[in-house]
Amino acid sequence: MQLVMEISVSFFLIIGAFFMLVGGIGMVRLPDLFMRLHAPTKSSTLGLGSFLIAAIIYAAFHGRFGFAELLLTLLAFITAPVSANFIAQAALHLRLRSMGGDVPETLDRPLPWQRTRRRAFHKKHEDTENQL
Known about the structure:
transmembrane helix, Na+/H+ antiporter subunit G, mainly alpha, PhaG_MnhG_YufB, membrane, sodium:proton antiporter activity, 2 domains, 6 helices
């Protein structure tokens, strides 16, 4: 029975290490922030998830429930996409361009905290619709 536990824990550790390696390579190789943002978000979610599954299996084999591991998994799966979204919104706010080309609909779009730009944005689009 211990051999099955060791094999399954080793499997999830190798899978987690693979995702972390791919995320690290993506951080180094991808050219700009918008492309580079995707690599650590996915790798941290999938890699850390695999590591925590391995820890849960190990804890279950030794008679513990693994509540701490479940809590860490929940927090990691919630915070990684939220932090990536905030970083992307900050990059849009700073008007950083992607090396893949300009994205005009995101550059002209007002951010939620910019009320004056939002009013001007809606007024400009209403004037455009009225001209048609």
